[in-house]
Amino acid sequence: MAETRFLHETWFLDLLYMQVSQPVTATATVQRVGWWSRHQRKAAPYIFVAPFFVLFAAFSLFPIVYSLYISFFNATGLGNWKFIGLQNYASLLADPRFWQSVKVTTLYALGSVFILTPLAFLIALAFHASATRHLVSFYRAAYFIPSITSAVVVSLMFVMIFDQDYGLLNAVLRPLGFPNIPWIRSADWALFSIMLLGIWIWTGVNALYFLAGLQNLPGEVLEAAQIDGANRRQAFLHVTLPMLRPVVLFVVSQAIIGSYSLFAQPWLLTKGGPEDATLTMTMYLYINGFSYFKLGYASAIGYALVLVVGVLSFVNFRLFGMFRED
Amino acid sequence: MTVGAGVLAACAPAVAPSGQTTTGDAAPAAAATELTLWCFASNRAQWYTSLIPAFQESYGSNVTIKVEELPNEEMHNKIQTALVAGTGAPDMGDINIDLFGRFVKGDKVGFIPVNDLLGDDIQNLYERSALLPWSWQGQYYGIGNELNACLMYYRWDELEAAGITAPINTWEDYVAAGKQYVEATGKKWAAVPDLWWNYWYMFAAYDGGVFDTEGNVIFDNEAGKTVMQMLRDWVYTDEIAMLAPGGMIWAQPYYGAMAAGNFVTCFGAPWYQGFMKQNAPDLEGKWRMQPFPLWSSGAGAQTATHGGTGTCITEQTKDADAAWAFIKFCNLNNESVLQGFEMMNLFPTWKPAWEDERMRFEDPYFDNQKPAEFITAVAPEMPPLNNSPYWPEVTDAFNRLVVTPVMQDKQSVDDAMAAARAEADRIMQG
Asked: Residue B256: closest CA among chain A residues belongs to which residue?
């Protein structure tokens, strides 16, 4: 009779004590079966995923937890860091530059959600129309290219395009009667210019998400709606849009998260200026952490960002009925 | 990854000061050592690399120097991170003058003081450019090899054509000449940055600056307000200047305008001359240099400092003796600094090198003038640059709350200075 051991909650103790059991044969010869032989099937999945988790723990989880830890310290410069409790968070609430970064980032996010996303959807509808379907492959590549081009290359290009005196954009607009617009030179225009850049970069890839959603809609549901007498507008509003809800949720979530983690483009174009007009939360975090060497304060900004994005994502999910059982 | 807080090991190995000022005077290290030096400027990387063979010949071939070039911001960030973590920092690092302030925050500095190591060599260094910008509380942490005495540059051909004589001795004369030029040609006299505080050294030249020797903020003193008002008036009242295309002196549109002759006077350090040559080569022979004008009251200095790089030894160095020997070899002897001068157009802070024939060269770009004559003449007037742990935050506040709103005519100088002062006070109160 074979003596067996089952993998249970204390299986890891077996690693330490290495107890073995052996089947007893009719010839009464006892064969010792090693621990690994008995547990390898159950241990193998953990071992296969271990490399990822080890790296994740070392390079993601630990920094995340440690950052929370030092956000409770006056971790400025080198030397002894003093525990100050929630003082960093209290200072954050009273910091006008922090609120300016929240305002800038939120405005950018609103632009992403209410300008970029509808625009992407309209483009997807245009791709999806039967008249242009033969050009889908071309447009798919053309609209996707901006999102895979290096952020540094794009930003440096747009520094020149947006230049007030010698830029390409003003060179096109001047003959049409427009003045030399200070796209990234004026606090009144800079954020709008960053949004324009964001639209140029991200509209295409978001259009592809919507296009994929449209192309995967079950045709029979739309046919059924038509049979029931729905016109095109009714079918679009009451059938197509609701069925696209998961795609819209995904695109809007990406827009929110992407907006609140925006750093490269405003950093390269304007360094947060002029006059903090394009200072995003992640940029303010970076400036405090590295330029000012205030690691504790920067960590507090990071967790404030987590809170903001978390709340907005939750609201977004509730709005799209993600938690409803349909 | 090493937990940073509480595990930093401060090491300050005892290094006997050297009393000699020539190369080849240090004893070789016993074992093979590779020292790393991080820098952010290609030309400096090339200069260091070119000096390694001669250094090894004098110090010993068992010491090798590995020069690694990283982007400016990234290099400083990595050094900071490594100093916090307690591991991973290079033996030596080129620290930008603008970014040194962040390293003197906190209870300790992650670099080894070099006061004792300098010994008598300190007498041969131009302290205000070589040591003060990388100092804190009486300790010198780096050696800067750039005597960045700023000068005024002018298109002598354009001035002559407009009937203007140079040199221009006072700021009042400068404005008058500008008006004459604008009236004669319809072009602008100068281009003033509005997105970056490129001309802040003019405050220093007029007994101003950012911090005083006690660490107090002084940018809003009489000098600061006067100079800021003067720059603003050049654009909007006197109408002799334009806002710099691109907003700053290192923007490509700025040099495009310079090359096109859209403005005919500018200001800057010797390294700025290199930018002019690189970006407007066709203007060779058409520029000349002169000291800063003074105020008609006699106030002001004929120069101030702008920019610079100091080489520091990190506390994580494997061999502080060898690191100091290399820094000394590069910066405290004639041959090395003159090689740097020829390679980088950087005027040395090592005073004995000023006597060398190579320093008396005639620069064809500046109509065969001798830059060394001007720089050595004005250098004694150079006001000191007082650093501070709050340098990054306060200069940032000055840039966004004073320079941009005033130069874009959105706010008066007094209001902008008041706002910047309030912000600086908030920053320094923590």
From this structure: A166
Instruction: List the single residue in A77, A165, A275 with the smallest CB-CB distance to B404.
Output: A275
**C-alpha pair distances (Å), B154 with each of A284, B249, B294:** 40, 15, 16
Pairing mode, strands A82-83 and B63-69:
unpaired
Q: How far is CA A204 from the centre of its chain?
A: 17
Q: DSSP characters for B251-271?
A: SHHHHHHHHTTS--EEEE-HH
Comparing CB atoms, the residue among B102, B108, B245 nearest residue A292 is B102
pLDDT at B429 over 90: no
- Write the pLDDT tens digit of every residue in B257-313: 999 999 999 999 998 998 999 999 999 999 999 999 999 888 889 999 999 999 999
Residue contact A166–B396, C-beta within 8 A: no
Give contacts of B 57-86 with A, CB under 8 A.
73, 76-77, 80, 83-84
Percent of chain A with pLDDT over 90: 58
Question: Cβ contact (<8 Å) for A290 and B76?
Answer: yes
Q: Distance between CA atoms of A2 and A120, rounded to whole angstroms?
A: 65
The answer to whether position B223 is within a domain reads yes
Nearest to B1 among A62, A75, A77 (CB): A62
B8 within some domain: no
Same structural domain, B222 and B339: no
Q: Using the predicted structure, report yes or no on whether residue A131 has a pLDDT greater than 80.
A: no
Range among A45-49, B187-191, B210-214 rated most confident: B187-191
State the residue range of the domain holding A285. Answer: 95-151+190-319
Convert the pLDDT of each residue in A242-263 to its tens digit: 889 899 999 999 999 999 999 9
CA dihedral angle for residue B152, residue B158, residue B164, residue B167, rounded to 10 degrees:
30
- b (16+ CB within 10 A) / e for B47-67: bbeebbebbbebbbeebebeb
The 10 Å Cβ neighbour count of residue B305 is 26
> pLDDT tens-digit profile of A8-38?
445 555 554 454 454 444 444 555 678 888 8
Of A62, A187, A290, the CB nearest to B80: A290
Whether the predicted pLDDT of B8 surpasses 50: no
Q: What phi, psi does B268 have (nearest 5°)? A: 170, 175
State the smallest CA–CA distance between residue A17 and chain B in angstroms.
31
* A22 within some domain: no
Query: Which domain, by its residues, includes B336?
Result: 33-147+307-355
CB contact (8 A) between residue A78 and residue B106: yes
* Biggest distance spanned by C-alpha atoms of chain B: 71
CB contact under 8 A, B253 and A293: no
The total number of structural domains in chain B stands at: 2
The contacts of residue A73 (CB under 8 Å, 6+ apart) are A81, A82, A83, A84, A296, B5
pLDDT score of A133: 67
- Write the CATH number for A131: 1.10.3720.10
* Band of pLDDT at residue A231, cut at 50, 70 and 90: confident
In this structure, is residue B396 part of a structural domain?
A: yes
Scored b (16 or more CB within 10 A) or e, A289-302 reads bbbbbbbbbbbbbb
A205 is written with which tokens? Answer: 């890839």
Residue B373 lies in a domain: no
Residues of A with CB under 8 A from a CB of B: 58-59, 62-63, 66, 70, 73, 75-81, 160, 163-166, 185-187, 273-276, 287, 290-295
Rounded Cα distance, B298 and B381, in Å = 13
What pLDDT was estimated at residue A32? 64
The tally of domains found in chain A comes to 1
Q: Distance (Å) from the C-alpha of residue A104 to the closest C-alpha of chain B?
A: 16
